[in-house]
Fold this sequence. Notes:
InterPro entries: ABC_transporter_permease, MetI-like, MetI-like_sf
Order of helices and strands: HHHHHHHHHHHHH
Keywords: Cell membrane, Membrane, Transmembrane, Transmembrane helix, Transport
Structural class: mainly alpha
Transmembrane segments: 15-37, 82-104, 111-131, 165-187, 219-239, 269-289
Organism: Paenibacillus allorhizoplanae
Domain ABC transmembrane type-1: 76-290
Largest sheet: none
Mean pLDDT: 90
Amino acid sequence: MPTPSHWKSKLTSSLFILPYLIAFLAFTLIPIIYGFIISLKQYNLLDPVHPFVGLDNYRKIFTNGTQENDLFFIGMKATLKFVVFSVPFLVIVGLGFALLLNALPAKLRSFFRSIYFIPYAVSATVMAVIWKRMFDVTGGFINLLLAKVGIREFDPVPWLLDTPFVWFALVIATLWWTIGFNMIIFVNALNGVPEDLYEAAKIDGANGWDRLKSITLPFIRPVLIFVLITSTIASYNIFAQPNLMSNAGDETKVLLMGILQTAYTAREIGSASAMAILMGLTIMIVSVIQFKVTSRKE
């Protein structure tokens, strides 16, 4: 029979997770359930009555010629392009910066860690405005620099107006903004790799690439998978960069922009909720596939 001290210990442990549980219910689980319920209704903002329509909102998304179909698949195409273009750089550059940071003297690490992480504290709106000015066609710093060194002097690069330049601009802005977060995660993972393994590898004649391939990457593999999946999820949720920076039309009209247009321009909250639910399912499927492909049994 459990003693009073045992129940007291269990109660104390439960209280530690109570704030997270409340936040999870209030800001994640309940909104998801409520959003799914709305997706089954004809939920026009101007109508006082919201009749149940079942899966009609989902059928509209997969019916050619409907506004929901156009917005969903145009947005999904643009979103997938950004995921493919950005995620490899977010992972590889983040790991590269972490390796460079670890190679610095201990006195300089804290300084450069702060320098790299500062952009992550900037809001999405400020970040987008900064890089929109940087990539501006006529007076942007990038084009002025290219003209100064004699490249594209009389033919400015349409960074935010045409492909593939617009994708380059969006990826660069995202890298600058978020790379510090991935770098910090990788730095913490690298600090957990035993130093004696590196010393033994050096004695055996292993060079830097051999040590990275045979020691570093296997030890930080779980963190590498975590960063890959979280970077993919974050890239699927891109909104501020194309919305505030790009003037390339449907080419960079990502899915969240289509959902926003459906909800507040067309005032069809039910269809927008259905699109959001499908987007969430897509992210879950991609994340599971990534985890299955990149993980392995030890």
